Amino acid sequence: EKTGFIFDLDGVIVDTAKYHYLAWKKLANELGFDFTEEQNESFKGVSRRRCLEILLEIGGIEASQEQFDRWLVEKNEDYLAYIAEMDESEILADVPKVLNYLRQLDVPMALGSASKNAVPILEKVKLLPYFKAVVDGTRVTKAKPDPEVFLIAADEIGVAPSSCVVFEDALAGIEAANIAGMTSVGIGSPEILEAADHNFWDFTAISTEFLDNLIRQRNN
Ligand code: G6P
Ligand code: MG
Q1: How many angstroms is it from 209 CA to the middle of ligand 1?
Q2: In the annotation, is 10 catalytic?
Q3: Cα-to-centroid distance, 213 and ligand 2 (Å)
Q4: Does the C-beta of 51 come closer than 6 Å to ligand 1?
Q5: Any alpha helices (H) in 110-183, and if so which ranges?
Q6: What DSSP state is assigned to residue 169?
Q7: Would you say the pTM of this structure is higher than 0.90?
Q8: Which residues share a beta bridge with 133?
């Protein structure tokens, strides 16, 4: 059985988690309350719509459907303005090293993200060609921690879920990978991502030996 690798996008491949945070914070401030980085943790891996629901709960704000939809558009426009000038410099450290290593071993790779902006972002940073499948927020109906996004990705790269490795910076994403029966690798705080099978602060700490071991383990 071949091993497959599935990558989350925001906060794993590119440094966009901070822009999502800034756009939500701006909206919160406009509505008259603050939004902290700690509160932002629960937004990682969560759909735009669900994030706005949580934000309005935090602020104790009730909105009509129309107003809700306007705020959704406003947040995304602010986010798009942040990433408009995005280029390869926003790729997180050593991510290309890992992607190139896996590609050279002919390991199938997929993207598994809740973002509806995934494809344009991958194009901007020129990483789209690395992925055999891109499963994003335009294609999934059930949000992480539901494993749907990763199960579709596994299917599209033709690898059994139990032979897939998932890289995630969100707790909801680690849970989704675990539920799918995949090996989960947490990127970020090991305290927050305690549920992961392996933890790294970032890709600079991931060695080729570690990748080789994952491939070997999952192969038997
Ligand atoms: C990722 C991010 C979330 C974001 C979601 C939707 O999962 O971690 O913070 O809310 O994508 O992103 P979008 O680009 O569609 O607003
Ligand atoms: Mg993420």
Answers
A1: 32
A2: yes
A3: 24
A4: yes
A5: 118-124, 148-157, 171-179
A6: S
A7: yes
A8: 110
